[in-house]
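check this one:
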Amino acid sequence: MSAALLQVQNLRVAFGGKRVVHGVDFDLAAGEKLALVGESGSGKTVTALSLLRLLPEAQVDGRALFSPAAGQGGETRDLLALSERQLRGVRGKEVAMIFQEPMTALNPLFPVGDQIAEVLQLHEALSPAAAREAAVALLAETGIPDPQRRANAFPHQLSGGQRQRAMIAMALACKPRLLLADEPTTALDVTLRVQILELLDDLARKHGMAVLMITHDLNLVKRFADRVAVMEQGRIVEQGRVAQLFGAPQHAYTRKLIDSRPTRDPAALAPQPAQPPVVQAQGLRVAYPVARPGIRGWFSKGEFVAVHGADLAVRPGETLGIVGESGSGKSTLALAVLGLLPHGGSLQVDGRAWTGGSASRSLRRFIQVVFQDPFSSLSPRMTIEEIVGEGLAVHDGALNEVQRREQVLQALADVGLAEKQFPGLLGRYPHEFSGGQRQRIAVARALIVSPQLLVLDEPTSALDVTIQKQVLALLQRLQRERGLSYLLITHDVEVIRAMAHRVMVMKDGHVLEAGEVDTVLDSPQDPYTRKLVAAALDV
């Protein structure tokens, strides 16, 4: 490693007089990759954003000495002391940032190629034509297929991995000396995670770029970083080389993070007695109409088949995991099982035909869902009592207000949220709770109508590792106590190992492989399954 490119000294950040980052110190050498890890609320993202003064409401103290010509006698500047005008010349050109959610970071009104070209025109003074050509070349360098066409695409027309690559192309447009990467692989498939990490690794070597990566994914840290700094409640509690820190962690919080991998509950995953399935599908097919090209589109529509004739059965107390990359059809299959999409083939819930329409309303309480993002799936305008009790209002209209409130409190207590712990719990709103607590509220909302089957659509992908472990343990306990069945949709092979009895592997709408979890994941027969398992081991 070369001399220090960035020296952060006694960094303190406060909002409205309340300090959230307390005297952080770390160095970053040119070409080095440092991971800043910790749970949500630990201060890691605030630390990174404060380096470029992207927190207008914050009070920031300390020093961030930036030496882009480190070791060559170049000028050293304190990023925290620069004027706004001076910072504009640094942001994007010398220090760039990849934000956590590309869908919100990219402008939805402009093609991604134009957004990349804008950076080049601003910092490199390229002509519009030259900037456009360079933008296409950058997209090609990040591995986006058909970059000339993708440059004309709007963010919503790209997949999650493609949007992330477009963000990386924009960040690297001016060949910065330092890249701040805030959760660059969150919610991406395991194979896409490997591709993004390899891309960043390759570009860092090629351009001699240092990377400060913000993440809570410890597997990613081991795969990518040279050094790691662990943050807890606004303080760095431990830092060192990756092998040293993972091999012999000194701080209790570091040990807690490392021990937070999903674990298998033998009691919950004991073999289940043969019983009629809670839900059963044969030849389930989901297709969407699409316009035909040319004059044929005037007279008839084509179709895109998202699920090709899937068969499945979930028995009482059993978890069926469905794993695959984005676009594999797993979430579409889940929506069809929930009765939210028209479908072909046969589908039965509790032994009765399930169409999902008004005719099947009496069956609706038997199958409930917990969505991926607890923040967007809970209405911000409803209180916790209204959110959790909504199902009772639909399915148990005979209950009076007192009875309904008692059941709401019991459902919340069952998922670990008690009025004693959270005074005024029923009158609170979702934004007053952490991500893990919001997901518990979502589980309570699903459980209050006593369902037989829960569809879990990526229930922990947006959560920290410690919170993920708590939510998975909660789901395992509820399954053990209530005999619940789960249809678990995920791209995380570790979660499948911890939670599922059986697993189905999907790709391009087809079920490629299915069977007992240990059999499929330990001895995969299909090349695609082998690729997924290998990618999970890599990160």
Summary: The chain has a mean pLDDT of 86. The chain has three domains: 4-94+176-258, 105-175, 314-538.
